[in-house]
C-alpha cells in the first residue's frame, strides 16, 4: 500500500499556510481580474461534456501549483492509480472501490492510461466481463419493462446510495423518459412516503424494485415488507406462476441475492461488494434510470462517466478537473477556514443534486481519522448544502451576499434547454451568471444596509446540455473530486462507520421498549421515548 504522510506534516502544507497568511487572505477578485488578463484562460478549462470556470475563486497565481505539491506529498495520484488498478483502497473493509469499472467498455479498458506496474490484474479483467453480462441483463429487463404496457408504475424502494443517485438521474433525464412507466421513489421509514405512493398506484400495474446493497437496511426492509403485504392484500399472490405473483412484480437489486431469496424475491439483479452504496447508480441499483430512459440512454450515462474517468486518469495535473476541484475544496476548508459549500444547480432537473452531493461528500469524507486509524489534526468534509436556482435566490442568497460567513458557491447550469419555453432557459442562465458576478463584484453604497462586500468566491460548471452523457460526466467528476480531497486528508472515502451507531442505538431502544428496562439510559432519551409512545393528551 502507498505510504502517505499526514497531510499537515508535508512541507507543502506549511507553504500553503504561509501563502494564505501572507498573500491569499488579502485577495481581491476584482483586482485580480483587472491585473491579470490571463486569469480566465488560466483558471477555466474544458473537461468532458462541460466547461469549468474557476476564475472567481480565491486563487492567486501560484496557489494551484502549491496545492499540486500538496497532492504529490500525499500521494494523491498514486492513490488514484491504485483505485483504478483494483487495489483494496477501502482499507477498513478490505475492498476495492471499482464503481468506475461499471462504466468501462469491455473492449476499451483504461490500461493505456495506467502505469504498467499498476495495470489490471486478472481479477479486474474478470470483473469487467462479469459486469458487462450483468449490465446486459439489466438493460434487457429495463427495455422489457418499458415495452410492457401493463406496467404503468415502478416503485423503487431504497435509501441513501440506493436511492439518491437513481432519483437524481431519473429527474434529470425526465425529458428523455417518454413512453416509459412512472417512477416513484420511497426512502423514508416514515410510512407517509410509502403510503402516498401506494395510494396512487394499482398493484396489477406496478413493479416494485427493492434496492439495497446489504438487504438489511432497516428502513428499506420495513418499506419492502409493507409493500409486499399491500401487494398481497390487493390480490397479489405468492404463487410464482400466478400472473399477479410476487415473482413478476418484485425485483431485488442487491449484492446479497440469498437475502432477497429469503424475502421471497426470485428476480434478482446483483452487483459486487466493491461497489460502494453512494457510488452504485452505475450498477443494478440504476435499474429505475434504465427503465425511465431506456437502455441506449443508460449506456450514454455510463459513457459520459467513463469519459470523465479517462480524463481523471490521463489529463495532466494542471488541467485535471477533478484534481483541481478536489484541491480547491481542501484549500477552502483547511487554509481559508471556510466550513461549507453551497450547491446551486440552475436546473430543475438537477434539483436533487445538493442532496446527492451531501451523501457523496459528507458520508465519504466526514471523518476524523486516516485510513490507518491515525487521528486527523485538520478539518475534513465541509457542510454541503443547497437548492436549485433561482429558488435559492429568494431564500438564502441574502446570506451569501451579505452574511458574516463566506460560503463558496457552485453554480451548475446547462447551456441548452431540454424542454420548456426557450425564453425561460435564457432567463435562468442569466440569473446564474448574474449571481456569480454579484457575489464577486459586491455593491458599494452610502447606505450600510445596501452594501454588499463582494469578493465572494464561486465556481461555474456549464454543461453543454443536460443529457445522459453530460450527467454521467458531472456525477463522475464529483466522485473523483471527493476522492481527491479524501486522498489529501488520507481518509478512506469508501466506508461509513459513523452511520452504524445510530442504527445500533435504534435497535437497542426497540429492545428496551419491549423489556421496559431503561436502566442507565439518560433522562432526555428516556423521556422522549416515553412521550413518543404515550397517549396524545400527555404531550
Ligand atoms: O447510510 C448508510 C448506508 O450504508 C449508505 O452508505 C448506503 O447508501 C445506505 O446506507 C443504504 O444501504 P443499503 O444499500 O445496504 O440498503
UniProtKB/TrEMBL annotation:
The active site is at residues 363, 394, 503. Pathway: Carbohydrate biosynthesis; gluconeogenesis; Carbohydrate degradation; glycolysis; D-glyceraldehyde 3-phosphate and glycerone phosphate from D-glucose: step 2/4. Belongs to the GPI family. Keywords: Cytoplasm, Gluconeogenesis, Glycolysis, Isomerase. GO terms for cellular component: cytosol. This is Glucose-6-phosphate isomerase. Its EC number is 5.3.1.9. The keyword Isomerase applies. PANTHER family: GLUCOSE-6-PHOSPHATE ISOMERASE.
